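Batch 3, record 17
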Amino acid sequence: MSDEKKLTLSGRGTLGAGKGVETGKVRQSFSHGRSKPVVVERKRKRTLKKGPGAAADADAATNEQAAPQKTGEAKPAPTGGGRGGAQKPRRPQGGGRGGLTQAEIAARTGALRQAQEEAERRKVEEERRRREEEALRKAREAEQAQAEQEEAAAETEARRRAEEAAKQAAEDKARKAREQEERRKAEEAARLEQESEEARKRTERARAAARAAGTPEAESADSAGARKKKGAKGAAAKKAEAAKASKGRGEEKRRSGKLTVTRALADDDERQRSEAAAKRRERRRRQREIAGDGDKAERKSREVVIPEAITVQELAQRMAEKAPAVIKALMGMGVMATINQTLDQDTAQLVVEEFGHKVKRVSEADVEEGLIGDEDDAGDLRSRAPVVTVMGHVDHGKTSLLDALRKTDVVAGEAGGITQHIGAYQVQLGDGNKITFLDTPGHEAFTQMRQRGAGVTDIVVLVVAADDGIMPQTVEAINHAKAAEVPIIVAINKIDKPGADPTRVRNELLQHELVVEAMGGDIQDVEVSALQGTNLDKLEEAILLQSELLELKANPDRNADGVVIEAKLERGRGPVASLLVRRGTLKVGDVFVAGAEWGRVRALVDERGQQLKSAGPAQPVEVLGLQGTPSAGDDFAVVENEARAREIHEYRQEKLRSKRTTAAPASLESMFSAIREKQATEFPIVVKGDVQGSVEAIVSSLEKIGNEDIRARVLHAAVGGITESDVTLAAASEAIILGFNVRANKQARDAAEQNGVAIQYYAVIYDLIDDMRELMAGQLAPEVREETLGLAEVREVFTAGKRGRAAGCLVLDGKMRAGAKCRILRDDVVVYEGDIASLRRFKDDVREVEAGTECGLMFANFMDVKKGDQIECYVQTEHARQL
Ligand SMILES: Nc1nc2c(ncn2[C@@H]2O[C@H](COP(=O)(O)OP(=O)(O)OP(=O)(O)O)[C@@H](O)[C@H]2O)c(=O)[nH]1
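Prediction for the assembled complex:
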């Protein structure tokens, strides 16, 4: 590119040309940095013959050469046309100045002018662009400056806030210190006042004594007292004044406010705060306001549920309060607690009340609350079928009788269904009445159910074979029925047999305090033959009559509850339970809890294998849909939803687990505590002896022990060793078993251990009676006797500590004793009963304060003591009872 030349379009540059016309390329640079190659044309100088005007032409030619020959940019003369001079045709020689034609000159001049105009235009364009860029840059700079300014403002704001917070904290601290100081001063003043009062009294007493003695000391004592009083008063006044002055100074100081750099800056910040910051602040203020209002609204109506134990954090959350505030409140009560510390229910209650919320105490067992709903209104009750258990001695015909009674069912006869064992069945009589029979006969099953708390039986049918009479298990059955306080109907069976003697049976029953109607008593008896089906209708009539007397009623229109009679796991059907509905109606789809299991009723099947949609009161039914297998004797109840059922299931499973791990000790103590809990007035006993004579002697002696509060109740007394049946009875009635010269067999021992039944062995009747007397006396709560110690009157009430109130009292009578009990009487009405928490004389804790002396009293959990209240101080002593 040797022939490239740098050209400028400023218009000032000299455009040179070589000899003749030569073409070449030059790179053209623009002021804004761009460049591009340009084809240039070089012209050789022409040598012209001298002629007129030659000089001028030469000049003109020289001038012409100065004109740019730029392709595309500087347009050549119209004759030239096309791109660049390279294609330009040679001009015809001659004519015009310096050999150029006029047209050429004009074209060149035009081109020159155009080039100048173009340059001018570009310059303007460049200038415009530069200005635009400049404006843009300035705008950016301004933006940046603005952002920086805002950032700085925010920073300043944050600093100001931090300073403000620090200042506030310092002020709070100072205020607290001042308050503390003021309180201390007030207390000091009160103490001084009290001291001066006492000094005055002492002086008065001295003066009185002096007057009595007739000495002039009275005067001096008087004046000394006055001086002292004046001094004390003066001191108190001075202190109070000083306190006032310091308070005043403090306030003044606060008001004046020293101007510090920080403060000045803070003020400036206030003025300089950006609009965005102001908006942010406003938004935060609104949020705070909303949060504050919400808090207040909630606080008014909040009911805080407190379980048996709760952590500080949990309690704070339930109250919607801050944990530190709760800790502070606890500190105020003298309890130093961390956030994770567990509080007992009482303490938690105090805290909740302190914050002004309502308390709802719950215990773990509350999960079962409401499970067995409320009692029904009398108006909702409808008569229900009685539930009957058949008992009696072996082979007296219990099973035969149950089978015979089953056949009396009119519905079964019509339907002809095959009966199946579901633990109970219901017969419908011709008149529409129904009777439910539990078809596991015998007193063992009966008592086992009772032991589980399922007293489902309304009536016991005692089967006695007319040819055999009363036998040991008949007696047991009688005693079990009596222990359960269930009425008995005697079915004298096998009357078809040749040796049957119903009268003998009736006579023997008398020995067991069962007086049948035929003998003037109120026990119904029916002669039946299970084998031949004789008098079964009469037996059923007797049952219905008894049930009428019992007024057996239930509300069918409610959620069902009742008892599990049997439960098993069946292949293909899953857990199956036979339930006896006690109240309400059990329906398909109901969610229910049975013992520690739960389920949703998938199907209901009766004893004839028929699918039911629902089962009402006293109706036995087999239910499918359980998640697990409950135990016979467990309660069942329909619940509102699955969640509730699961909750109860989990709670009961947990209870079962803990019960398994902590086996019940077979001790007297555990039995007694159970009895005590029930505040029993009866002491149930099962007696087993070696001979009838000793058993009778023991029973009659036991019946003599006792007073109006407690008495022995012999549930069962018989000759023979202690059996499992005895233990079951004792367990069901929470009784003790006494063995006189007899022992328990292995099964009985195991059962006793399992059920926590106490068995005591004796060989001497007197020992047995003495022990029982002592045990029964031990059952009675010790007698509490009260001894009044003294009476005091509240003369003044002071603030003690942060929250406490102390009563300045004068003991009027007897004495006040620290730790003793007291009653606060206001206008002869007891306003508080509790403990004396502290007893002080001046500043010292003392044990006792005698009559005529002043003292300070504080009470446990009571602040509302008032001037004029009377304090009755007393102690309680416990005395063991004797029978
Ligand atoms: N003659 C006569 N025999 C009867 C009558 N009732 C029952 N039996 C018979 O007495 C025997 C015992 O009857 P069960 O019904 O098994 O007596 P149980 O009380 O249930 O006996 P366990 O189940 O062993 O306690 C059977 O052989 C019956 O046939 C009756 O009314 N008359």
